Amino acid sequence: MENQKKGCLYIISGPSGCGKNTVFDALAAKDPHIGQTVSTTTRKPRDGERDGVDYYFISESEFLQKIDNNEFLEHVCYANNYYGTLRSEIDRVLNEYEKAALVIEINGALNIKKLYPSAVSVFLMPPSLETLRERIACRGGMSDEDLERRMQTALQEMEQRYLYDYIVVNDILEKTVEDVYNIINK
Ligand code: 5GP
Asked: Which of 16, 27, 83, 107 falls 20 to 30 Å from 125 in CA-CA distance?
C-alpha cells in the first residue's frame, strides 16, 4: 500500500480532550468512504471501551515485543502508557475504505507526516483552555495529577499546531465536521 495509497491518509490530531474522536465519529457518519485505524495501547480500558473497537488493549511486554518486531508504523509513550499504530491497520482500513484516518496525538502525527509527506494533517484546537480542562476531567478515571499532567502536555502540544496542513478550532461540532469534511474532500 505504501506507494500507491499513501495519498489516502488523513491525520486528525490535537491535544487530548480537543474532541478528536467525537469529530471523527461525526465525520465518518457524513462520509462513508473514510475509516479509522484502531490503535494499540497499554492503557487500561475505560468504562464502555471495547477491545478491537476503541483500541487493541495489550500488556506492556506485548507492546515492547511488537516494537522489536517492527510492527508499528509509529508509536509513542504518552501519559505513562504506550500508544501505537500497527502497520497492518493501514492495510486493513484501506482494504475496506477509500481513505484512512489516524486519530492520534502530536508526536505520532508528526512522525506519520515525515513518513508520508502527502498525508493530510489537521490539528484540532479546543476553543479555550477551560473547555479543554472540562473535557479531559469529564472522562473520569483520572487523578488530579493525571489531569494536570495532561493539561501541561496539551499546552506544549498546541505550540506545534503550525506544523500541520490545517488548523480547525473545534467549537461547534457541526461546523468543525463540515470544515474537516471539506478539507478531506478537496
Ligand atoms: P486516551 O488515553 O485519551 O485514549 O489517548 C491519549 C492520547 O493518545 C490521545 O491524544 C490519542 O489521540 C492518542 N493516541 C491514541 N492512539 C494513538 C496512536 O496509535 N498513536 C499515537 N501517537 N497517539 C495515539
From this structure: 83
Q: Is 89 in the pocket of ligand 1 (CB under 6 A)?
A: no
What ligand 1 atom has the least distance to the C-alpha of 84? 19
Q: What is the pLDDT of residues 23-69, one digit of tens each?
A: 999 999 999 999 999 999 999 999 999 999 999 999 999 999 999 99
Residue with the nearest Cα to atom 22 of ligand 1? 108
Q: Domain residue spans in the chain?
A: 8-184
Fold of domain 8-184? Rossmann fold (3.40.50)
User: Of 10, 86, 105, 149, which is best to mutate to test ligand 1, by the most ligand atoms within 8 angstroms of its C-beta?
Assistant: 105
Number of helical H runs and strand E runs in the chain: 7, 9
From the number of C-beta atoms within 10 Å of its C-beta (0-12, 13-18, 19+), residue 48 rates as exposed
